Structure formats: structure tokens, C-alpha cells
């Protein structure tokens, strides 16, 4: 878990990262929207759950949280969900119905606190409307990002993630080529299905976001990015025809372990 930082006066980033030996880093972000009805977006990874709770408490009193929005039920987004629901008794759990049902197979989700959303549905957080938008790339069928109409930010879940060479608090601090390459690798590895989609068909999937044109993208797996939406969409358009990502195999692992021992 890294130190929380302010993206805007009303949005705080709760960042963490996973080191990928030989490749770089994968950021893992959760966010707090300091709306009239405060919203936590995702709940970090389970392995740094204690630190996550500590960091969260430095930004907001969990008792004040009104919403916990789970973009999808992958473990890097739901790490502290049970602790949060306990610490934040006034918060409702906003998520896709399938995400809730899948989580309910692992632990008893309090159904009276759940709020089910599909693409296009929304909630009011008092001073803003938060609309569920399915991002063009996703690794889990329950994925819903969030468009915040007050800050003109799109919380994009796994979409626009990147394996990056150095950690940063702003995507603009990364070298453009390295960022584009890291985004292509992540997109290919996280969403291998995209290689089965004709590029011109996938290009149409990007239209929703092109039209929405959010000022900023807050991905779970990228440093915050402002005024880069058009450029990012152009990068994603290249994914179907890009070189498919191949995960390291046992020979690579043996080599890495050997290096660690020496
Ligand atoms: Fe995911
Ligand atoms: Fe993720």
C-alpha cells in the first residue's frame, strides 16, 4: 500500500502496486469520492488489507461512507470489502447483480444493503450523479465503471491499465512510448478475447467513451490521467491487432528463481 494522495479536492487516490519482476509495476488503485454522500470505489487487495483500512481512515471516517461501489468482484478490487462493510454501517454496496451473487458464494453478502446496477443505471451521491458505464475492455463480466458528472471523471475499472516501468502519481509523468506499450501489454494480457474481435468492430466499442469524452480517466491499474482520453482510446484501438501477450512460463520462473538465489 502506498500513501494516499489527492487527485482533486473531491477525489482521493488510495494507491497500491504489484511488482512484476522483469516487467515493471502494476498499479492497484481504489478511490474515495468526497461527495455529499461519500463513495469508496473498490477496496484494494486482500494482502495489504490492514494498511488499506489504516489509509482509508486517514482520508475518511468509514462511519461517514454512504456508498461502496465495487467495479467488479476480482480479488484486487474486493480485498477489504467485508471489513469495510463492518466499519461503514451506513454504506450501501453498489455493484452489478452478478458480482454480488459471485461474492455471495464466498461470504454472506448482506442483501439488504446491496444496490444492483447495470450499464446506464446510476445513483445520486447528493451533489453528483454517478452512472454505471461498462468500459470497452474488461476481464470480468460483472464490470461497471463509473462516470462522475460533477468532476467529469470516468472510473474505468481494469480498462486503461498499464504495466509501467516506474511508479508515478500522474500518467503524464511516464514516457509516452512506455505508457502506450504498457497499456497494450496489459490490455492484451488482461483481455485476451479482444484479439478475436475484428479491429473495426472493436473500434465501435470505443465510441461510447469517445462521445462521453471524460476529462480524466481513473483506472484501477494506472496513475491518474487527465486530458489523455482521446490518446488512450487511440491506443486501445490498436489492441486487437497487437501482438498477443504471452505470460512467462516455467523456464522463465526457473531463471528468475535462480537469479534470486545467486
Ligand atoms: Fe479484473
Ligand atoms: Fe483489476
UniProtKB/TrEMBL annotation:
Ranges for domain Metallo-beta-lactamase: 27-221
Cross-referenced InterPro entries: Metallo-B-lactamas, ODP_dom, RibonucZ/Hydroxyglut_hydro
**Which domain of life does the protein's organism represent?**
Bacteria
Pfam (any one): ODP
What PANTHER family does UniProt report for this protein, alphabetically?
ANAEROBIC NITRIC OXIDE REDUCTASE FLAVORUBREDOXIN (PTHR43717)
- Please state what the protein is called: Metallo-beta-lactamase domain-containing protein
Q: Which organism is it from?
A: Desulfoferula mesophila
